[in-house]
């Protein structure tokens, strides 16, 4: 009785560690890999190693970066009085593509989710509070997703920050309810920033 | 305006080369990779390289193998008078798992498909004919998938081989029409081999 040759069994195991990829898909991808151009496979392997080795989270804002602190945190031409809070590094990219916001960012790396057992200590909230103690920040824009968890997280942050006299705003409902920031078009994002309201 | 850092942009490009993976999924996989265990990422990269480097197609039967000729072609205890023809290396694994067939294999690496412009010269048919000239083969079992292309390929092979006086059989309709061999359960495969009929 023949099993898959070891090299392909190993590759299937690796593909299966990726999210949303089960047995069948992993097998299909592994066999496809063997037929790929050798250069492409080598590059794929190098890119995996490089991404893991060269990318870090900024120790100030939590965004993904090659240098620490990141380019945005070290850019003194940016408005130091505003911090826009997002769930994921991808959301920073979406905001930057809009090319209309010039303040700083803070990446939570998640949202509060009682169902998944994620509390305030599981996301980057402590580091946000710490940044606010410097007194340069006048406004925090909470740009978590328009999902129930995103809204709850926004309310939690607002309650935490407002007593310190810092203005807390939330993106306007330019975002359609239930959608992710990542998929919003640029005009929707611009409207959402313009119409932000105090919490 | 900030773009994705180069290492993650490169990794997204590599993921996008895989079949069925578009922009959004590639981005999600790339960000996921950065959060993965470093050992897992290193192993993933090594497995990619090893699979591409150590696996080859058997020069006799076209099956995937670490050694050439493959273990099945060099196993003299196997029935040398029967060749079972399949579309893909995965199908050999499916047949071997059934543990009921002890002859040889031939992997076509595809099927005839006028729509995709695949003719007889694009799949391993010439090498099959060459193997039959040795006169040791008494029967060819055509185990292409029960799809229109698989059936057409089976008929083409039968027409080519029968004049040489070799028995050509096709798997019985234990296989449900329109399905792939890869997904069949072992009993269905056993029934299909038992009920094979001359073409």
Automatic annotation (TrEMBL), chains A, B:
CDD domains: TOPRIM_recR (cd01025). May play a role in DNA repair. It seems to be involved in an RecBC-independent recombinational process of DNA repair. It may act with RecF and RecO. One of its GO terms (biological process) is DNA recombination. Belongs to the RecR family. Keywords: DNA damage, DNA recombination, DNA repair, Metal-binding, Zinc, Zinc-finger. SUPFAM superfamilies: Recombination protein RecR. Residues 81-176 form the Toprim domain. SMART domains: TOPRIM. It comes from the Bacteria. GO terms for molecular function: DNA binding; zinc ion binding. A zinc finger (C4-type) spans 58-73. The keyword Zinc applies. Gene3D superfamilies: 3.30.60.80, 3.40.1360.10, 6.10.250.240, RecR Domain 1. It holds the Pfam family RecR_HhH. This is Recombination protein RecR.
């Amino acid at each position: 009785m023949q099993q898959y040759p070891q090299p392909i069994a190993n590759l299937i195991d690796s593909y299966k560690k990726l999210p949303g990829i089960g047995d069948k898909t992993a097998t299909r991808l592994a066999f496809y890999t063997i037929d790929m151009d050798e250069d492409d496979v080598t590059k794929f392997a190098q890119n995996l190693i490089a991404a893991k080795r060269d990318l870090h989270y900024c120790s100030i804002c939590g965004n993904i970066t090659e240098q620490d602190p990141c380019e945005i945190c070290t850019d003194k031409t940016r408005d130091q009085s505003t911090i826009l809070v997002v769930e994921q590094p991808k959301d920073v990219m979406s905001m930057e593509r809009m090319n209309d916001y010039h303040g700083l960012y803070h990446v939570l790396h998640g949202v509060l989710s009682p169902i998944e057992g994620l509390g305030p200590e599981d996301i980057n909230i402590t580091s946000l509070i710490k940044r606010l103690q410097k007194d340069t920040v006048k406004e925090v824009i909470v740009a978590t997703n328009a999902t129930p968890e995103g809204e709850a997280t926004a309310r939690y942050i607002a309650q935490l920050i407002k007593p310190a006299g810092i203005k807390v705003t939330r993106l306007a409902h330019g975002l359609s309810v239930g959608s992710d920031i990542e998929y919003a078009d640029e005009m929707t994002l611009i409207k959402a920033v313009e119409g932000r309201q105090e919490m």
